[in-house]
Write a structure and sequence with these properties.
By secondary structure, the protein is an alpha+beta fold. It folds into two domains: 4-343, 2-Layer Sandwich (Nucleotidyltransferase, domain 5); 442-568, 2-Layer Sandwich (Alpha-Beta Plaits), CATH 3.30.70. It is 45% helix and 24% strand. The protein has 14 helices and 17 strands. The strands form four sheets. A five-stranded mixed beta sheet has the order 3-2-1-4-8. The protein has a five-stranded mixed beta sheet with strand order 11-10-9-12-13, with helices on both faces.
Length: 568
């Protein structure tokens, strides 16, 4: 793996978290971490959140925390992600996965972007995690990034990212079952890692739940409630020293304890897993004073803060803020066992094709270099053969008995000349391909790609029209099969695809192509719609003499004039 930077960003409701991984000589390291409060007003709506997120991303971009060559991985807001644990017979996954997903997701699959990953196997059963997000939410994330001048390589599930961090810290497999509690502003998740398996459950008690209890029961403002929770209470305080604020927060946290207990019981009874003896806490609301002591006393297990950077030689302030950002970066770098990508399948396809376009362009130049070397080698061999022929002709003037030898050498020359002619034809085709790709790419949008290109000679068209007519070629002309016209390229056939509305863009593309020197425009040969994209074949008529008319028409006119002259 080449040296590069991979960025993970957690799109939180109140705070954005940023982690940059540096991959140097295949070794990962933490380059930088950053969190930025969005400072939203209490009554802020979704549009205000969007504007604040865009501003933060733009500022990180201007500070060069995010640069064009960096790979960018995003987690969707946790409260917008629906997570389900599935168990499907391994041999039936391919046929039943979509049916099971349709049963588990409360809205139509047509209205969500979703993905799944196998997180464990037991006998003939596979355990899967399914993550789904409404299409409008994903579209909003994509548009937010676009407004900031960015594009995500994938959109991850935050809970899965947390599990990946735990597995990475454990060397890929947890020795004992461990649970991770992530308390966010608008969503909380319980993630259990058992060996290599991951199990996830979303909990109804969140940071917003804690704040709302104080606002409702003690008539506090939301801002006062947040400040009080962070600075004026201690969940580990002994009985008898409880203020009204502490009583309210403890009551809410007792609900959270009940949800955790139910989840651990379900995990053990339904999935056959061992009850975790350790609970790690993380998230924006995991820093409530005395939280770990409170949970440990109620759950009777060891509870501690989740230091997500323990596998890296770097000290980060408030490490429990960053598990989701770090986890999606690890998955993007290929350093985590599981990867979920809820980007729309069409966008994933387009990104894949964009990467292939770069590979195709590189390949074209490599093949051009190979052809050049072959041509040079054949030219050198041709020179050697011609020298032999000259020597033989000199001998012929002196000794007539060498006629047979000269005849043999002449045959060698003829054979080599045929090889040279073929190489010339290949070189000409190569030049056409490379030039066509270079020129045509300037006139096409980024959502169009090529899958094949070949040249069509006048002979190809002539023979086809002979079959379709009464033995008369194009325009009624007659051409000798040995004529050089037979091998002359007059048209290119391009095959490829187009993501978007082809028919609306076609007139504009025709005008652009017609302006390319050496091209006389194109005609559509075939068009097939495949879901959200089209596949096509285009005929590009060449105009190598730049007279704004296809070469095919020039040939027809020239031969027709010759025919008329002969008739006179």
């Amino acid at each position: 793996m080449a040296d590069k930077k991979i960025i993970g960003i957690d799109l939180g409701h109140e705070t954005l978290k940023y982690v940059a991984l540096s991959i140097i000589s295949d070794k990962p390291g933490i380059k930088e971490c950053k969190s930025q409060d969005l400072n939203l007003a209490i009554d802020a709506d979704d549009s205000a959140w969007r504007e604040a997120v865009v501003n933060v991303l733009k500022s990180w971009k201007s500070e060069k925390l995010i640069q064009p060559e960096d790979e960018l991985y995003i987690t969707a807001p946790n409260d917008q992600v629906l997570i389900r644990a599935l168990k499907i017979k391994t041999e039936d996954i391919k046929n039943q996965l979509e049916q099971e997903a349709d049963k588990q997701i409360p809205v139509s699959l047509n209205n969500v972007d979703w993905d799944s990953v196998i997180v464990g196997e037991e006998n003939d059963q596979s355990h899967l995690v399914l993550a789904a997000v409404k299409k409008e939410v994903v579209e909003n994330i994509i548009s937010i990034l676009a407004e900031a001048g960015l594009e995500a390589n994938s959109i991850d599930c935050g809970a899965m990212a947390i599990g990946n961090v735990c597995l990475h810290s454990s060397g890929g497999e947890a020795e004992t079952s461990v649970a991770i509690l992530n308390i966010g502003a608008t969503a909380s998740d319980l993630v259990i890692v058992d060996g290599k398996k991951i199990w996830i459950r979303t909990l109804p008690v969140t940071g917003k739940t804690i704040v709302s209890s104080l606002v409702k029961n003690l008539n506090m403002s939301e801002e006062e409630a947040k400040k009080t929770i962070a600075t004026q209470i201690n969940l580990a305080a002994p009985a008898g020293e409880e203020s009204d604020v502490l009583k309210n927060v403890r009551a809410t946290m007792s609900r959270l304890v009940m949800e955790i207990t139910r989840s651990l019981t379900f995990f053990k009874s339904q999935l056959g897993g061992e009850k975790p003896q350790k609970l790690l806490v993380c998230g924006g609301y995991s820093n409530i004073p005395g939280l770990t002591t409170f949970l440990s006393g109620r759950l009777k297990i060891d509870v501690s803060e989740f230091n997500v950077f323990q596998a890296f030689d770097k000290t980060i302030e408030n490490p429990s803020l960053y598990p989701q950002a770090l986890g999606c970066a690890l998955a993007g770098a290929g350093l985590a066992p599981y990867a979920i990508n809820i980007l729309p399948k069409g966008v994933q396809l387009q990104q894949s094709l964009e990467r292939k376009k770069v590979w195709i362009a590189t390949s074209a130049y490599i093949f051009a270099a190979i052809f050049f070397v072959l041509f040079a080698l054949v030219s050198m061999k041709s020179t050697d053969v011609k020298e032999q022929a000259d020597n033989a002709n000199n001998e012929l003037s002196k000794v007539t008995t060498l006629n047979s030898k000269i005849g043999k050498i002449q045959k060698q020359i003829d054979k080599k000349q045929l090889e040279i002619d073929e190489i010339h034809r290949v070189i000409l085709s190569r030049d056409l391909y490379v030039k066509a790709l270079q020129d045509f790419s300037k006139a096409i949008p980024s959502n169009l790609w090529f899958s094949g290109i070949e040249n069509i000679t006048f002979g190809d068209i002539y023979e086809r029209e002979l079959l379709e007519s009464d033995n008369a070629g194009p325009g009624g002309i007659i051409v000798d099969e040995k004529s050089e016209l037979y091998s002359r390229p007059v048209r290119l056939l391009l095959r490829g695809g187009y993501y978007g509305n082809w028919m609306d863009d076609m007139p504009k593309r025709k005008k652009r192509v017609a302006k390319i020197p050496g091209f006389a425009g194109f005609t559509q040969r075939r068009m097939t719609k495949e879901k959200k994209y089209y596949t096509f074949e285009l005929d590009i008529d060449l105009d190598t003499n730049y007279n704004d008319k296809p070469d095919l028409e020039d040939i027809k006119e020239a031969n027709n004039r010759k025919g008329k002259s002969r008739r006179r």
